[in-house]
Design goal:
- The chain is an alpha+beta fold.
- The protein has one domain.
- 18% of the residues lie in helices and 31% in strands.
- The chain has a 5-stranded antiparallel β-sheet with strand order 4-3-2-1-5, with no helix packed on it.
- It holds the Pfam family DUF4176.
- This is DUF4176 domain-containing protein.
């Protein structure tokens, strides 16, 4: 994600590039197991198909740069602003970790 782009709030509704189904953002900063490789992967977002909502077997993980169109921006308040500050530090920690530093989601209260 470019530094000038903000993570979308929960409840935002988007269309992915070349996608035809709206998704609602139900999670952010997800670390999940890749079904093909078995390794942990990171995604900016977890999405659910709109309007049906969460189905654990059909959770969609995607990056901010995969978003083609924002249909609706979810609710945001002062807690969201604080979350974004912590999230940016945590995400930078993931980059630093690849340079032999160790950070975990728990280090930042996730």
């Amino acid at each position: 994600m470019n530094r000038n782009e903000q993570l979308l709030p929960l409840g935002s509704i988007i269309l992915l590039k070349e996608g035809m189904q709206k998704l609602v953002v139900v999670g952010r900063g997800a670390v999940y197991e890749d079904a093909e490789t078995g390794s942990d992967r990171f995604a900016d977002y977890m999405g659910a198909i709109y309007p049906t909502g969460i189905n654990p077997e059909k959770t969609i993980f995607f990056q901010h740069e995969n978003i083609d169109k924002v249909v609706f921006i979810g609710y945001s308040d002062e807690e969201e602003v604080r979350f974004l500050e912590i999230y940016d530090a945590w995400r930078q920690g993931l980059v630093d970790a690849s340079e032999n530093e160790t950070y975990t989601a728990e280090s930042f209260g996730f």
